[in-house]
Each structure stands twice: as structure tokens, then as C-alpha cells.
């Protein structure tokens, strides 16, 4: 999980940092599945839940007077909250390693932390998947403890002026494809692709100072992309027999409407192809700065999702990808033509991104747009400190 301190150190003193844990807290893309009230800030579909008011006091009370859960995880400070729970920065008292501690109410209609813990265990050892250390129930809460990570790609997108360079998107795409391939190879389909759910490594040290700049011999933690928040993941095949789930229609929507596949809008059962199409929408979001179906309005959320789906279907791939390397349109055409049970050619898709870099005369060197910003902010803070000490 990310820490807000990672974002605060990236923002100028007078700039407004993001206040929520974007991958965990319900942001401007999130709504409840059965809520048809006119709420223009939301377009994510979730199962309905009993909303419980969370406060730091109630959580700390649950953790008793020692502020310790799971025997040796100490709560440090709250770093985010929302209708589905609260997240704290914490520390493992056995080794002094920072952790993220997620809480959800046991009263929730659709608790997710136990399933999320299971997904982390299934994916244990996969590159770019945080370690899960503990799941348990204490007093009125379910609790999940995982690695503390840095800001999300959505946060970094903001820091970089809400547009990434083609080089950065190609490098990001390769890592995101890797993460989703690992999920798929472990028989899971992710079902909620969005920039908020992909984080980089923890980029501040114990003194809240920005970690040193990137080099090939000493890679910056912000060059490793992690996938988090598996609350929507499910098996698309039996993990033992590898038998694929059957194709179904009239399924309820799940995921984030901005990025979900056309098949998902049509109520089709999701499979591997849908994760990859959603990734393509994220790539174009990063390149363009926005997607053609953003900002649509409708009297109800149900009508809004319908309009988003219609706009996606009416926007040609050539129009969506216009002005950018052809490999992105080739990617979109490929993933949208995949059959329900078809195994994607992940190497081919990564190769498209390698071609983008090659044609630009670039290497996959880990020098993402945000690494330059991080280094610039670090140097600015060092100079500011020197001036104060003069």
C-alpha cells in the first residue's frame, strides 16, 4: 500500500497533494453497483455494502491501548479512509519494516480483505506483488497487513502534469502487462484495472527524505511497479484442472467504468481479454491525458454507464490512438479480437512496446518521467535545507 508521505514530498509547499489512498479509498471513479442516484463524481461498480463510519479513534480502540494488531504490527498514523475501510501506516515491531494495515468492518455485506489476502498468497513470490503478512479478525474489524508502497500511477500522473511521454507509457505498459500475465498464469482475472491500483516502491526514507536518484547499479524504488487491491479478482479457471469458466451474459458490471472493456459493458463474463483491453484504455489515458468517454453526464448512474459503453463502441481504435505510434492501435485491435477463452500472447504485446522504444531510439532504462520529477524535488529540498542552515 502507498503512503501519503510519498506524495507530500513530491508536491511543492503550496500545491495540494492527493488526500486519499487512491487504490483503496473510493475516489472519483467509484460507486456502488445498485446505487442509481445521480452522482456525477462516481463511475466504479462495486457490490453494495453496509457503510460504517470509520474514525481513527474507533480503530485505535479496536487495537486496544497498545495500538498493536496481529501481535506485532503497530499503528503509526492513518493515511486514508473511505466507505469500505481505513488504512494505516504501521511498523512490524519484529524487524522495524514499514507496513500498510487495512481495516474493514465485520458488518460489511461484502467483505473483501479475506479474499484479497488469499489472492496475495496465490501470487506470493511474483514480481511486483506486495507481500501479505497477516489477516485476522479483531473486535469489530477484519485486518490485512501488507507491504507499504509508494504513490500510485494516478498520483504520479498528476505530479507529471497529467500526461506521460510515449517512452514512459511504453515502459509502464511492459511492466503492467507483466503483472497481469502473472495474475492470469495463477488462474485469476483481475477485473479492476485502473492507474490507482498500480503503485511504485516506497520513495521516502525513515526521515521522510526523498530517496536518491536512479541509476542502473542502484535502481530507484519508483521504477518498480506493483499491482495491489485484489478485492475484485476471481478465478477464470479451476487452478487444479485449468478448466475455463463458461461464457455467460447478463452479468452485473464490475470494475471501473472509465477503463472497463466493451464486453464488460455488454454484461459478458470477464476473462483474460478484458484485463488486457482495460490496460489498453489506461495506456491511451496516459498518452492523451483523458479518454473520449470521460465527462459524460446522465440522470442516473445506470444511464451514465450505458453512455460510456456506447461511446467506447462508437470511438474507432484509429480515432482513439490517433497521433501516437501505431503499436498502440495494433495492441488495441489484438486484445479486442481475442476470444473468451483464448490465451493472450503476452510476449507479442510486450514486443509491441519494445518496438515503440526502438523506433524512438530509446532503451527501457527505468528513467520514467516521474523519476526526473522526484530527483528535481529532492534537489530543491536539499537546496532549501542548505539555505536554512546558512
Quick recap:
The protein is an alpha+beta fold. The protein folds into two domains: 31-36 and 48-147, 2-Layer Sandwich (Phosphorylase Kinase, domain 1), CATH 3.30.200.20; 153-360, Orthogonal Bundle (Transferase(Phosphotransferase), domain 1), CATH 1.10.510.
Walk me through the structure:
The protein has 390 residues and is of the alpha+beta class. It folds into 2 domains: 106 residues, Phosphorylase Kinase, domain 1; 208 residues, Transferase(Phosphotransferase), domain 1 (Orthogonal Bundle), CATH 1.10.510.10. The chain is built from 12 helices and 13 strands. Strands 3-4-5-6-8-7 form a 6-stranded antiparallel sheet. It has a 3-stranded mixed sheet with strand order 1-2-13, with no helix packed on it. Strand 4 and strand 5 form a beta hairpin. The longest helix is centred in the last third of the chain and has 21 residues. The radius of gyration is 21 Å and the shape is globular. The two termini are 38 Å apart. About 10% of the residues have low confidence.
Overall outline:
globular
Per CATH, which architecture of the largest domain? Orthogonal Bundle
Percent helix range = 25-40%
Per CATH, the superfamily of the largest domain is: Transferase(Phosphotransferase) domain 1
Our Rg estimate from Cα atoms comes to 21 Å
Average pLDDT: 85
- Helix count equals 12
Number of strands: 13
Total domain modules: 2
Strand order of the largest sheet: 3-4-5-6-8-7
H/E series, N to C? HEEHEEEEHEEHHEEEEEHHHHHHH
Amino acid at each position: 500500500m502507498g503512503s501519503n508521505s510519498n506524495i507530500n514530498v513530491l508536491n511543492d509547499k503550496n500545491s495540494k497533494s492527493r488526500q486519499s489512498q487512491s487504490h483503496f479509498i473510493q475516489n472519483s471513479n467509484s460507486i456502488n453497483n445498485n446505487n442509481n442516484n445521480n452522482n456525477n463524481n462516481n463511475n466504479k461498480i462495486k457490490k453494495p455494502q453496509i457503510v460504517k463510519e470509520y474514525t481513527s479513534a474507533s480503530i485505535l480502540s479496536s487495537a486496544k491501548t497498545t495500538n498493536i494488531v496481529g501481535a506485532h504490527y503497530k499503528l503509526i498514523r492513518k493515511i486514508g479512509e473511505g466507505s469500505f475501510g481505513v488504512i494505516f501506516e504501521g511498523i512490524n515491531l519484529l524487524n522495524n519494516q514499514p507496513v500498510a494495515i487495512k481495516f474493514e468492518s465485520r458488518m460489511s455485506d461484502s467483505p473483501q480483505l479475506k479474499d484479497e489476502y488469499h489472492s496475495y498468497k496465490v501470487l506470493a513470490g511474483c514480481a511486483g506483488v506486495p507481500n501479505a503478512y497477516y489477516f485476522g479478525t479483531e473486535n469489530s474489524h477484519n485486518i490485512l497487513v501488507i507491504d507499504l508502497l509508494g504513490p500510485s500511477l494516478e498520483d504520479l500522473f498528476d505530479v507529471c502534469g497529467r500526461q506521460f511521454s510515449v517512452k514512459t507509457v511504453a515502459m509502464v505498459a511492459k511492466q503492467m502487462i507483466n503483472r497481469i500475465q502473472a495474475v492470469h498464469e495463477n488462474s485469476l482475472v483481475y477485473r479492476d484495472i485502473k492507474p490507482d491500483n498500480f503503485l511504485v516502491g516506497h520513495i521516502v526514507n525513515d526521515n521522510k527524505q526523498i530517496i536518491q536518484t536512479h541509476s542502473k547499479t542502484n535502481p530507484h524504488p519508483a521504477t518498480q511497479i506493483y499491482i495491489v487491491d485484489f478485492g475484485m479478482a476471481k478465478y477464470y479457471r479451476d487452478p487444479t484442472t485449468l478448466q475455463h469458466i463458461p461464457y455467460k451474459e447478463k452479468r452485473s458490471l464490475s470494475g471501473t467504468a472509465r477503463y472497463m472493456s466493451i464486453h464488460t459493458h455488454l454484461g459478458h463474463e470477464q476473462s483474460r481479454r478484458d484485463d488486457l483491453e482495460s490496460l489498453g484504455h489506461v495506456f491511451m489515458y496516459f498518452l492523451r491525458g483523458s479518454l473520449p468517454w470521460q465527462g459524460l453526464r446522465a440522470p442516473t448512474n445506470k444511464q451514465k454507464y450505458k453512455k460510456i459503453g456506447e461511446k467506447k463502441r462508437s470511438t474507432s481504435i484509429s480515432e482513439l490512438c490517433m497521433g501516437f505510434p501505431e503499436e498502440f492501435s495494433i495492441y488495441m485491435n489484438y486484445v479486442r479480437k481475442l476470444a473468451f477463452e483464448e490465451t493472450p500472447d503476452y510476449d507479442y504485446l510486450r514486443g509491441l512496446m519494445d518496438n515503440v522504444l526502438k523506433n524512438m531510439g530509446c532503451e527501457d532504462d527505468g528513467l520514467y518521467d516521474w523519476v526526473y520529477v522526484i530527483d528535481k524535488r529532492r534537489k530543491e529540498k536539499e537546496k532549501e535545507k542548505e539555505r536554512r542552515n546558512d
